[in-house]
Write a structure and sequence with these properties.
The structure holds two protein chains of two kinds. Chain A is an alpha+beta fold. Chain A contains six helices and ten strands. Helices cover about 30% and strands about 35% of the residues of chain A. Classes of the chains: A alpha+beta, B alpha+beta.
Chain lengths: ~270, ~300
């Protein structure tokens, strides 16, 4: 039994029920889980505050040709512009509170019940500063870095010798052509690939990824980790889909970095 | 005849006892106190005259015992609250009352902390809601009972690990705000002809509501610690259309979080080791879905990003 030997004295004081004597540094807010909080501190950073940016956006209308595969540029722009605005506001809030960066960024889109053309975009994450004696990291152009990595992944990324630069994204809203009546009739009872559908999905995904890659190049990144490809339809016509790719652009911390070998374990209590 | 009368006597006695208990509850809740039979149960638990009750798993019991603490009793706080003037403010009042009742029970059994606190709501018909908190009161053998036991929404396992890292989860903070916005000029939400554009007036209004809720959260947390891990965010923007009057928007936002107290810049003594589990797929290290204490449904669209 180790008893309370491993618990710091100030924590024990607190458990005796003494109220804290006020905190000169003020209150930080964050949406970290306790494990994330612990690991971010272990990585040498302290949370300073929750950074939120939102944008309520009116999405314009675009008509698509029934039988044509095409990008819906108006919608693509809307989805990208609105997210960019939300992110920029989040970054601004982070800069205002003197944060070095924002980790655990989540991007959400919410439909408003009262108007199908109005979407609410929110970017939310925790602003962090480096603890004293720790090296600082900033994003491109001296702005706070942004990343959608969790506190756990943030710690592991630093262990791997990389640091986050910027949350990069690409969006493409695409209209998938309907199949003509004759083509449909001609293929009844046959095993065939619906090439126009395949092509549409390929093309849309490709465009979204290219746009993300372009952002990463702009940020001067070596690569992008944690890339996710989302496919969604925000209350549009059935043949319209959005491909959205998002990830964290990263760059090596230094030329030489030794990565500690992970221990191999075999848990036998499954 | 005697058979009937004896049953009636029993019945009367039971009714009287029930009525007495109800009366005690009523006086206790009104006076911010606990009924004497609850005090008695908790005092017995504190003195280890009765077996302890705990929501802990055996693994959690192990870690708590190995760190010089023991479970005392399951403690609860409940407040069924009706929304009259404001739904948003009602949530804050409901939670705060339930929290103070939970703490009162823990204090009565001489605890240092309440761990594994789960927040629950159940909506009733009409405009009222039940706010309930359930947790396990624990006591460190080497410490005196606390006047203000800390409230930790973390499991015992996480609680002890946090303590070792110099972080004390101290309580639950709630912040909420609602505001109305009148659309005097019309077209605040844009028309279908207006193309792609951000709706700035509405957007700024919504930001104000959320900022204010976060401010309230910080104010609530300031008395308890120096940080909030806000796990629950709930916001609604509702449009109200009234005939021959301008449209109105109601924005309401609630944030709930776990308050922590720590000393910024403290180095973490715990080492972290990276491991790779050699099991295929079924590794217990991967775990399943974690149970979250989430009293509100996530308000984001499914799969949306």
């Amino acid at each position: 039994m180790t008893g309370t030997a491993n618990i710091p004295a100030h924590a024990l004081e607190r458990l005796k029920g003494l109220r804290g004597q006020g905190h000169p540094g003020g209150i930080f807010t964050s949406d970290f889980s306790v494990n994330e909080f612990l690991l971010v501190r272990k990585a040498g950073f302290e949370p300073v505050g929750l950074c939120v940016g939102s944008c309520i956006y009116h999405v314009g209308i675009q008509y698509s040709s029934w039988s044509k595969n095409q990008e819906m540029t108006v919608l693509s722009q809307a989805m990208y512009h609105a997210r960019e605005l939300a992110m920029a506001r989040m970054r601004e809030e982070a800069a205002d509170m003197g944060a070095d960066g924002v980790v655990g960024v989540r991007l959400t889109v919410k439909r408003q019940e009262w108007d199908s053309n109005v979407l609410e975009f929110v970017a939310i994450g925790t602003g962090v500063v480096h603890a004293s004696g720790q090296p600082t990291y900033k994003g491109p152009k001296g702005r706070p870095f942004t990343s959608d990595l969790s506190g756990q992944d943030f710690w592991v990324l630093l262990q791997a010798g990389y640091r986050p630069l910027e949350l990069v994204m690409g969006s493409c809203v695409y209209h998938v052509a309907h199949r003509g009546l004759f083509k449909t009739l001609g293929a009844i009872g046959q095993n065939v690939e619906l090439t126009n559908f395949s092509q549409a999905l390929y093309d849309a995904r490709e465009i979204a990824m290219e746009r993300m890659q372009h952002e990463a190049t702009e940020a001067g990144a070596e690569g992008v980790v944690g890339v996710e490809l989302h496919e969604g339809n925000h209350n549009w016509q059935p043949h319209i889909i959005e491909f959205f790719s998002v990830g964290t652009a990263v760059t090596p911390i230094s030329a030489e970095h030794t990565i500690p070998d992970p221990q191999l374990v075999l848990s036998v209590n499954s | 005849m005697g058979w009937f009368s004896s049953k009636n006597d029993d019945q009367r006695r039971a009714d009287a006892e029930a009525a007495e208990r109800m009366g005690k509850w009523e006086r206790a809740l009104r006076g911010g106190d606990l009924p004497d039979f609850v005090r008695e149960r908790l005092a017995d638990a504190a003195a280890q005259r009765t077996p302890w009750l705990s929501t802990m798993t055996p693994a959690e019991l192990l870690i708590v015992r190995s760190h010089g603490a023991r479970p005392l009793a399951t403690v609860t706080g409940t407040c069924w609250f009706q929304f009259g003037r404001s739904w948003t403010e009602g949530h804050v009042s409901g939670w705060r009352t339930a929290i103070s009742r939970l703490v009162a029970e823990a204090r009565a059994c001489g605890a240092n902390a309440i761990v594994d606190v789960k927040m629950r709501t159940s909506a009733a018909e009409g405009s009222s809601m039940d706010y309930t908190l359930v947790g396990t009161a624990i006591r460190f053998d080497s410490l005196p009972p606390a006047e203000n036991p800390v409230v930790a929404t973390t499991s015992a396992l996480e609680f002890v690990r946090l303590l070792e890292a110099g972080i004390v989860p101290t309580g639950i903070a709630v912040g909420a705000e609602y505001q109305w916005l009148t659309d005097n000029w019309g077209g605040m939400s844009g028309s279908i002809f207006s193309g792609n554009q951000p709706l700035t007036t509405l957007g700024n209004f919504w930001e104000r509501v959320r900022r204010r809720a976060h401010y309230e959260l910080r104010q609530d947390a300031a008395t308890q610690g120096n940080g909030v891990l806000a796990h629950t965010h709930f916001g609604q923007l509702i449009k109200q259309e009234v005939e021959k009057q301008p449209d109105r928007y109601l924005g309401r936002h609630i944030v709930v979080g776990t308050v922590v107290a720590c000393r910024p810049g403290d180095a973490l003594r715990l080492g972290i080791e990276m491991v790779v589990d050699m099991n295929d797929e079924v590794s217990p290290l991967f775990g399943g879905e974690r149970e979250v204490t989430m009293p509100y449904l996530n308000d984001a669209e499914e799969g949306a990003i």
